[in-house]
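Sample 3 of the quickstart, ligand adenosine-5'-diphosphate:
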Amino acid sequence: MEEKLTDIFGSDVFNETVMAERLPKKTFAALKKTIDNGEELDPMVAEVVANAMKDWAIEKGATHYTHWFQPMTGVTAEKHDSFITPAPAGKIIMEFSGKELIKGEPDASSFPSGGLRATFEARGYTAWDCTSPAFLKRDAAGVTLCIPTAFCSYTGEALDKKTPLLRSMEALSKQAVRVLHMFGDTDVTNVSCSVGPEQEYFIVDKEKYLKRDDLIFTGRTLFGAMPPKGQELDDHYFGSIKERIAAFMKELNTELWKLGVLAKTQHNEVAPAQHELAPIYATANIATDHNQLVMECMKKVANRQGLVCLLHEKPFAGVNGSGKHDNWSMVTNTGKNLLDPGKAPHENTKFLFFLAAVMKAVDEHAELLRLSASNPGNDHRLGANEAPPAIISMFLGEQLEDVLEQLISNGTAASSKQGGKLSTGVHSLPVLKKDATDRNRTSPFAFTGNKFEFRMVGSSMSMAGPNTVLNTIVAEALCEMADELEKAKDFDKAVVKLIKKTVTEHKRIVFNGNGYSDEWIKEAEKRGLPNVKSMVEAVPYLTTKDSIEMFEKQAVLTKTELESRAEIHYETYSKAINIEAKTMIEMASKLYIPAVIKYTKNLADSILAVKSAVPGADVSVQEGLLTKTSALLAKAQKALDDLKKKDTEAAKKEEGAKQANYFHDTVFPAMEALRAPIDELELIVDKSVWPVPTYGDLLFEV
Ligand code: ADP
Ligand code: MG
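Result:
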């Protein structure tokens, strides 16, 4: 019998309901204070919570616990410990102390640390993040209690993605509260950011996947010609969901609901075999943790069903890649969304103030935002003729742009355009209320009603990085604006003046047109907006004087932490391209070239056989094919030799920026040069000798 959804939702989460039930009133109240207001945690409280948590987990079948953290790899890490403790007479008891709850000690030297590990001791600590609830993971290992934690080095540097995110949330809250108090909202004590990540992914058949070394080793296809059909018919987007995919989605939803993830929408995306899942938004660090769980569950559930989930940003050339739209807003502890314009945005000074701050932040730190969405996979999307463009601009829509125009030219705004009614021309259909603003799908940073949607983030990335940057740059903008306001004698006058000044200074970032057009690239250049084309080009912006100053001022990342992150970015890039190059070399030498040689032999044999059977017979077809195939084969071999040489050369380069740039400028083009003749050969060579499943097999036969 199917369990009731309302019963299974959150059933594997040590959430507030469970805590209220199982913790003494005083302990619960103390813990709530830490969770809600960031007050320091009393070790005695931790002791009581640990015990309750253990009892709850064991009742649900748990044998182990783990500190679940997010090192700089971008994926999660865990080391399991069982609850067993020896007892007299060869027995055991199940124990879990407060100390074990709040602190763990994984060896930091085996995680990317970008030089921190050489300078400092290898020892690292994980610390309980009580703002994100503990949960149970169920798999073949049994049931494990997972405790979300932050991960730092012996000397306190953040070695993970969660710590800076939490710090950035504090920074944003501090500055936003400061501003709100000036507006007279003294009841606000905390501002949090809400995040709703829309997760795109591909699903392919596992048997076919296992025949593709490129998918196995790199997550994307490194070779492959386009099948006769791609996404040109637009028949996949929102199309009816195939049976196997529907079964996958069903099991996935159930898993996620048990974990308290508010999985909400699901649909087919634009590319064949591409889909999307979006949960209902949550506070940034919970949304980030949940998104990690979403990605992990997608892989696990797919695997159970003989499928494979591809989270790479560009698994297939020629069809759309996958992104992760980061829907972001700021909400007060009194429940007010600061990005909600209301019915009359022109009168909503507070909203206009926060809007101006976001404009200022995005304009002044566009390169950092761009970097926050950079990984080797996303280089295939951003700036590579795919959505969204690499240039950061902001879409505000007709209504807000009009309000800003009025502000800029008159100093105040007197009206807001309204949406009106939509008539379909069919009387039996309802008359719809129209939004005041259309949508713009091409904008990398779009205002969508009561939130911004940062569309550059890559599908495989952690939400932590982009939101850390977003929170920090907005905190910085709010801080600078608040500094100015504090000096003013007449707040009401000063605030309007400041909004006008800010939007005038930063209106160049607003663009409501088609972000994919060539005209926009020229226009953006005229406006002086940066066009950062690749990850390696973006990394240096992390450690400019301005960036360091801002991150340190907002107490989000220190100079050392920023430098280590830049180092990790370079390392990640070099390693990723190196693995791709090596995989290509292996596939070309051991699969494609031998297969093509076999095919040429078949052709040659056929020519000889036909000629000897019927002297003078027309063998021009076979000869033509043989000539063409042999030429491409020679081209492929030459490109292969060249790639081998360049990849070997890359290993000799100085690690860091130099090596990463060499991989980008030299090795990557050599990979493209090898792919071209092989893809051409795929269209000629007999399918029966082709050594791997094709795009057609992978994309259409799920
Ligand atoms: P669309 O594809 O039209 O952009 P979706 O429904 O797929 O919309 O995703 C929108 C996402 O934005 C969801 O995760 C939703 O919960 C989230 N969202 C809605 N309102 C807010 C808000 N105020 N702050 C942050 N995220 C929000
Ligand atoms: Mg969206």
